[in-house]
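This protein record is not my work; I was only asked to verify it. Take the sequence as given and treat only the tokens as open to question. I have pasted the whole thing underneath without changing anything:
***
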Amino acid sequence: MKYMLLIYNRPGFSESLSDSERKDLFGEVDVIMAELAESGEFVGGQGLADQSTARTVRSRAGQPAVTDGPFIESKEQFCGYLMVDCESLQRAVDIASRWPDVRMGGALEVRAIMDESGAEM
């Protein structure tokens, strides 16, 4: 089953780290990524550009309305994702639990990815 691990962290998190802290954090990520690649569980993933480049589209009076930023009510911002293909939800949660952002105040949301039929709904 494929799972999307949505990475959330507070705005400016990466910039608030010292060079040493940033190096350590990305070193931990590299270890996890190498393990996932070796096990065949890694499907894909990317970090996202700064939230200042985002736009949010909502309906206003039945028409699409576009606003600057990802201004959904939250302290954290969606900053990237990791897609894994693993045997169970528990395995996906285990991977998310190891992600260093979690330990440093961020969060990862684990969501199953529907197949094309949408039978999971």
Observations:
- Residues 2-112 form a domain with the Alpha-Beta Plaits fold (CATH 3.30.70.1060).
